[in-house]
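Quick illustration for those who missed Monday's session on complexes.
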Amino acid sequence: MVEVIDGKQVAASVIETVKSANAALEAAKGVRTGLAVIIVGDDPASHTYVSSKSRMAKECGFKSVQHTLPVETSQEELAALVAALNADPSIHGILVQLPLPRHLDSEAIIQSILPEKDVDGLSVVNAGKLATGDLKTGLVSCTPAGAMVFVRRTHGDDLSGLNATVIGRSNLFGKPMAQLLLNANATVTIAHSRTKDLAGICRNADILVAAVGRPEMVKADWVKPGATVIDVGINRIAAPERGEGKTRLVGDVAFAEVSPVAAVITPVPGGVGPMTIAMLMANTVIAAHRSAGLTPPVFQ
Ligand code: GUN
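Prediction with guanine bound:
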């Protein structure tokens, strides 16, 4: 029988740890963890994500600040806001929701965030620390950090001898996910849209992580029997069976046909999704501990 990981439940336990760490920090140092989230423009999906992040930060007891900027915001205005938040000692984490409107240079903005406040783990300093195996002083991108919690719960800390395949090579997910798996001693393959025999490569994986953004692309015959399958895709597709104009969310994995083949699988929704927000809160409370000179909690 396949084990379907309950991401909401795992995320809730991470959030409990965040809440108690935040309360302990406040008691010890009088410091309240502060998170600033910036959103530019009116993309409805981005607004939904950002509201959930701000709401969860409040629920964790953080100072939660949301900056909602109009689509015509200039590069200089956005850079000035990031600079002000960099200089604000009550803010420990800064997140600029991506994608930014096309006229803005995202990379310049992301790289202007102080690495110690870069709770998305996207700065070259944090990406470099992860690439060199320094998981103690850097911050790791939230979604791969969350996916890795599932991997550790299934396989433990040491993935020696296991083959892991990540489909997708983005800076936000694929690359850091591969680094985390490698750091845990897995033998890692990064596959992507230009990979030859993608199905064959996936079939070799004991741990298969899909982050391609193609609805239900990973089929049953792509999966090694007994594999752990982590689905990072969130795709909205038409669902005429629910009525005219209705939609539903599916992952990058064909859940119904893959479930009988896999040993462990994450659902969409309710798998990796809730972990992204939970790990953002974890990164922020970690950053606040470091800035107060305290050892941060560990999120397993
Ligand atoms: N857009 C979609 N996912 C993310 C994320 O994890 N961080 C940021 N900053 N933007 C996103």
